[in-house]
Amino acid sequence: MDTKLTTKTAEKEGATIMNQPVAAQDSVYRVDNLNLWYGDDHALKDVNLDIKQNEVTAIIGPSGCGKSTFIKTLNRMVELVPIVRTNGVIEYNGRNIFDKEYEVEELRTSVGMVFQQPNPFPKSIYDNIAYGPRVHGVKNKKILDEIVERSLRGAAIWDEVKDRLNENAYGLSGGQQQRLCIARCLAIEPDVILMDEPTSALDPISTLKVEELVQDLKKDYSIIIVTHNMQQAARVSDKTAFFLNGEVVEFDQTDRIFSNPSDKRTEDYISGRFG
Amino acid sequence: MALPEKQPVQKKFIDPVAVKKSIGQRLVVNNVTKVIFLIGLLFGLVVLGILLFGVIRDGAAWLSLDFLLNAPSRRPANAGIYPALMGTIFLMLLIIPMIFIIGVGAAIYLEEYAKRGRMTSFIEVNISNLAGVPSIVFGLLGLTFFVRNMGFGSTLIAGALTLALMSLPVVIVSSQEAIRSVPQAMRHASLALGASKWQTTFKVVLPASLPGVITGIILAVSRAIGETAPLIMVGAAIFIARAPEGLFSEFTALPIQIYNWTSRPQADFQGLAAAGILILMVILLTMNSLAIWIRNRFSKRY
After folding, report:
1. 3-state DSSP call for residue A59?
2. A-chain residues within 8 Å CB-CB of B302?
3. Which residues have CB under 8 Å from A114's CB, separation 6+?
4. Could A119 and B204 be called an inter-chain contact, meaning their C-beta atoms sit closer than 8 Å?
5. Cβ–Cβ below 8 Å for B194 and A136
6. Which of A273, B8, B36, B263 has the smallest number of Cβ neighbours within 10 A?
7. pLDDT tens digits, one per residue of B61-118
8. Considering only alpha carbons, which residue of chain B is nearest residue A168?
9. By the 8 A CB rule, do A91 and A272 touch?
10. Is the complex ipTM higher than 0.90?
11. What is the least distance, in Å, from the CA of A82 to any CA of chain B?
12. Closest-CA residue in chain A for B190?
């Protein structure tokens, strides 16, 4: 496993050096003048963001401000909506994700995603986790076993499910299902995890567990988390971007955003005057 | 929560006295409708019961192992349904893979790949329309295309292809519904893990929709094997002594055999026909129960 991981990283660094020698070493995503339309509806306007490695970046903003659209653009899931048009550049590790040769399957293997509603497959817990690796060609039962255990441990749910790996995932509680989905996402060994309001369907205790998990995962992954809960952004993130009507109003250290925002609109939103 | 301050007394639009008066009348209507619906239910059940009773009374005496294993004969005492029974079974075995592959394939294409647009809805409307086309029209199509143009003659394969064509619209529509009922979230979960569209369809969507798909196929097949008209058009043999030996041998089927016996004047043949109906009914009921069992056993809740 370790050798595989090293080669993977090495390849990526190679690619980075070849394509984008100027890019800062620790930037995972560089978003450059991104615009997105749903038909005639201009949903993202000139978005520029620089997302760093091994940080938690929170995206906040009122409903309909484009934060979910933005995060779904990062792994091109947004293109499942047929009327979407984009222009601009998103560089992931120095490669433009909109390049013709950049297959979405490849991108989505290194950028995992956790959704708003827990969405396990109607399969056993084991098969849920093993799904990703199997899709990418892992057949060896021993390796699969190891991936399943490591992913479930990584998502802090191993102890709760280790005795019932063959039971249907729908028997788990909502919070457990969401952590299972996080584990499923870890199983494809991504570098980035996108989380689209991962706790909005969960009770407070499950929310707390997921937040603690995000803190843990930061060591090994870059995390981008959309949340409508400002306290959550303040608790878990290093940087925060405030979106309003499809624009990035402010992007800065979370401490600064919450203590001393430079834009009046950010201040109004943070202090609960709207949104 | 703090109570709001004094609220002005609102005028009431629903008069309690009038409500009390009208309640009795409403309950009468309530009971009358209930009885009407019950009659509707009983009407179907009673008619079915009478039919069943008649068939069992006439046919039960003729049921025996010999009846299942003998070929039809001029003498009622020796007559059996073996060739027809085997013909029906072979037809089923041929139809199921054909409609599964083509029907589910078409449904997957329409649901997962086709762009939503006028062309797709035009095709969908026409598939639904085809489901309502009388079966004898499919018989004519089979006669023209499979029997004559393709040169199959009045053979088992021509009959199977005709029945498969007839069942396809129903299978496509029911498979489409089953595929559509798989939540988008499942597809998104799979795609977000880097799975391709085909992997998503094959490993997530299809397994999740399989109970609905199989139920649709079983119901379509059980309708197909009860059909007489298309098989008569295709030229299924009225009188045949042997079970079909291959795809290109002559064949007959249970409904044809039953139809043949009922058209004879002797009372004994009427009894044989009733016995044949019982066998056909056992097959149909078994298949329908299987469909219900599969639906209940494997249907997934999301």
Report:
1. strand
2. 122, 170
3. A178, A181, A182, A185, A193, A194, A195, A196, A198
4. no
5. yes
6. B8
7. 889 888 998 888 888 888 889 999 999 999 999 999 999 999 999 999 999 999 888 9
8. B300
9. no
10. no
11. 9
12. A132
